[in-house]
Amino acid sequence: MAELAKKIEESIFTNTGSSSYDVKYKTCCRSKLWNLRDKRNSEFVNKVISGIIKAEDVYKLTGDEMLSHEKYYQKQSELRRMIENCVRYESDLVPMKLESDGSLGSCMSGGSGGTVWVSRNMLDKF
Description:
The protein is mostly helical. Helices cover about 55% and strands about 10% of the residues.
């Protein structure tokens, strides 16, 4: 284990900075140490110990690459849900014309300005 830790630290040192006082070096060490100590992520630790992930390659892993499969898919599904909440479908929007003073006119009638798309929920509030 000590030899494995030494290889990980040496690869971080040679690939992130020229001194142990370098911020990039320290940040990378903290990140890797945090993930290697995480008791809920034994999957990552086992991959490093068994050699599936080489000690020399640990320095270049991102946070997502160090996550367990369960946590990774949980994070991806949460991201998908957030994106779906941000997307507005055309059926949810109503085209409105802008009046010359910048206020909204009625649905596509009158108005001298350009067209804007307004959420149906917003129209209910007005």
